[in-house]
Design a protein that fits this description.
The structure is a homotrimer.
Chain A lengths: L7 E6 L9 E5 L2 E7 L5 E5 L13 E3 L2 E3 L6 E2 L5 E3 L15 E2 L1 E4 L2 E5 L23 E10 L3 H9 L4 H4 L13 E7 L2 E11 L3 H7 L6 E10 L3 E9 L11 E11 L2 E10 L7 H30 L16 H18 L7
Antiparallel strand pairs in A: 1-11, 2-3, 3-4, 4-9, 5-6, 6-7, 7-8, 10-11, 12-18, 13-14, 14-15, 15-16, 16-17, 17-18
Helix pairs in contact in A: 1-5
Chain lengths: ~350, ~350, ~350
């Protein structure tokens, strides 16, 4: 498998790249080191000195430059070697590392690992995480998944699993009869679930506080290719209109680490009207972490282990109606990858 | 290497599959989940949901059914999907998992992983473990071996190693001069060792209580293809007849887990006349565990590590007279495997 | 990659092979077991019984023989099986293991793993470690490196890295301007670094005790193929002659364990005039260990991890002037390997 590279991916939460420190991570099978220039701007460089292949994060920051810890070559933010301290100091033309365009948006550091420099306008809109949105936010979530990002993307796009995997926390048996709708908006795929006259599962009830009263509930998930998601969920008194957007937003973003591991970043925008005490907020965050890390992650890890190195389709998966969204997503990703190989397209 | 599949293998001790719980294990490179129906009958299913390849043991038992923990598909004891809780609830024809015939006998759960349903009459006879045999028994032994089952089978069939590997516990220098005899009875191979006028090694003396007096001793091992063994061992006053069967029986049964790992189940039938205090019985069990787990297992694990992925015969092993039994066994296994590939035979 | 085999390698420190005990190690991808005959002479045998491939070090010493722990075959110092305790006791002609010539010199056990018996006169001269040299010595150093020996050899031959990797301990920024000279003497390659009017870094100052006064300093490293090194380093008052050998000798010897792991043995000969208290000597040894094990080793391990299974030259390393020595060394090793493959040369 190759990765779609002409796309913006979340490298990490912006706060993880601290002034005066290096941060390093494997993204799309490439080692990358991050640091901040003295003016605060983030930099992303290939994390491998071209001289003797030492990870640059084992070296030191020297102002806006990074210095290899083995022989002291210095590289500037463009990845160009600008100092060879030895002998006559000449710098070979090949002495450079790849520099990746990065862009901070919505508290995340986005990276472009494809051709050209990428257009930051193509970064998905998560403005619900911004202060001016009026939402209270819970950000900084991160889990390392030992599974290919497409398997995790299926988990997110098809929320029918919450009845079984997250029973009592995020879902319940009442939700299994949800009216499901799959739509496309441009390159986006949207999977809406509408559940009239149900009770509210535990974690959601910490936000919605219906104390057991029945509601109409919706969980509408939008896939923004290649691997960003936003969930619009909420409730209202039974019998209301089907659409009542803008209550709660779940932010879920996947970045391939390797073919079989994934960085999973998540956050949420809670209605500002939702009052929670500090204790309730901590309890909410802990339950959410439990659901993602101790329910989703073991399932995903086991799924990848069962697949091993096999191709997903070669395993001849049985398809259900709930797979309509995931299958469209897989086909879209295949088309994007094919287009990228032919050099005919970038991801919007 | 492939495995001989048309044979009954021990999956586990029957007591390991408890009511209301799932038990899972890899057998012959296949993941299998076990549970009991409400009437107590054991069930063995392929441990992988055909929808998204999740191990079924991560799900839940629902009466006689198993429910996948990810999306709630339910499978009955035959492996057929009998409930799809989503959408119109239609069940795709391909939604099934393999069901393996199992049979409880002599306290063990036997599994048939080959063609057809298997004939339980072909399960080896270990009735010495049954109460009506009149023997006291010590059952439930299990060790995981990091070696191919044929290497462990050679260990069992050729007991000449007990002088060296188990000196003082199961063997002694006196036993190296044993009169060895290799016989065949139908598909069985029998390796008899007759040791006249020897003292009794430690573990055996806990059973035989000769307090240092010399005896005639025999250790007669029978191989029942593909990987079951029964040892008939005992002693009598020197000068008696060579054959005096029925004193002590050692039960040793191997099940391939993968090409390079093996499940080793063992038990023993002790003469009912052999009185042991509770302390003595515990000491006996501990010494036996020590001999198998801290003497045999490290040797086997190291042997497999030395072989790596090489074929045994390609390594050109030097052959000794004591290898007569093991070599016949290897050749018999090769013939069985070849026959199975040609579809012309099952294991008796 | 293959290894150069027609060469003497350090198997271990001689004291590691203790009377009555076995010592085993992988060298050049081969498992070797060492022991001492009753007259004290060291023996090296292939660590694998030809019968069932059991590592012989799991067995027992019987006088000058080694006995396999599984079935009791005995091998003499030449590797010939001299006892088969079973049946008629006949010994198959193929029952033998490889015996490797070994030679003790300078406190180390050297092994010849190539063709013929090797000429001990070709073992590199480290007589500075002998008592009659007049040097105090610090021997017995050992670190396991998770990198190919050539990567570690580059580290040793090109000491320009000490300014960066060992700043304050073995090097300093002042040393980066060293006058570097690369010479060849027969098959040896010598990389000399001359640093006039510099201060003395921490570890060296424990020996040289200049208390911050400036000195002229030299670090002259000699490579003796395929993987032995000796460093001649020292200081004198500024303005003296460039050459003033014989102050301090660092002994660094590499033995490939596998293609990607290396045994690194090291020692030092300190000027007898260098008085150190016991505490100072312990502190010196600890700082040296820290520099090698916690500075060099992580860098080397990370370098190998970055290379993975790639060929060094295929990675197109950028070359600097400080690489003149390492590149010549790599080319010499390539010629030696090619010559060995054609059967036309041994290592001198």
């Amino acid at each position: 498998m190759a990765f779609i590279t002409n796309a913006w991916y979340v490298a990490c939460w912006a706060a993880q790249v601290k002034p005066g420190e290096m941060f390093h991570r494997t993204l799309l099978d490439q080692q990358v080191v991050f640091y901040r220039k003295q003016n605060g701007e983030a930099v992303a460089l290939q994390d491998r000195c071209p001289h003797r292949f030492i990870p640059l994060h084992l070296g030191n920051l020297r102002g806006d430059r990074i210095e290899c810890g083995y022989h002291g070559l210095q590289f500037d933010c463009s990845g160009k070697c600008v100092k060879n301290p030895h002998g006559d100091g000449k710098i070979p033309a090949a002495a450079k590392v790849r520099s990746y365009p990065v862009h901070e948006k919505h508290g995340m550091l986005w990276i472009w690992m494809g051709e050209g420099v990428g257009d930051p306008a193509q970064i998905p809109d998560y403005s619900v995480l911004e202060p001016e949105s009026g939402y209270r936010t819970s950000t900084g979530g991160y889990i390392h998944i030992n599974a290919n990002y497409e398997l995790m993307a299926e988990n997110l796009l098809d929320l029918s699993h919450i009845t079984y995997l997250h029973d009592g926390l995020l879902g319940s048996p009442e939700q299994v009869g949800a009216d499901q709708e799959v739509k496309e908006e441009g390159s986006h795929i949207i999977c809406n679930r509408w559940m009239p006259n149900v009770s509210v599962p535990g974690i959601f009830d910490m936000l919605y506080k219906r104390d057991g009263r029945h509601v109409d509930m919706w969980t509408n998930m939008r896939w923004i290719p290649p691997s960003s998601f936003i969930l619009d969920s909420g409730v209202h008194a039974p019998g209301g209109q089907r659409e009542d957007k803008g209550w709660y937003f779940g932010v879920h973003i996947l970045t391939p680490e390797t073919e079989r591991t994934t960085h999973y970043h998540f956050a949420a925008a809670l209605p500002s009207g939702t009052a929670m005490t500090t204790e309730e907020a901590a309890r909410y965050a802990e339950l959410r972490r439990f659901a993602f890390e101790e329910q989703d992650k073991p399932m995903l890890d086991a799924q990848q282990a069962a697949l091993g190195e096999a191709n997903f389709w070669d395993m001849k998966p049985v398809l259900l109606t709930v797979d309509a969204g995931p299958v469209r997503m897989r086909r879209a990703l295949e088309r994007m990858l094919a287009a990228e190989r032919q050099g005919t397209a970038t991801t919007g």
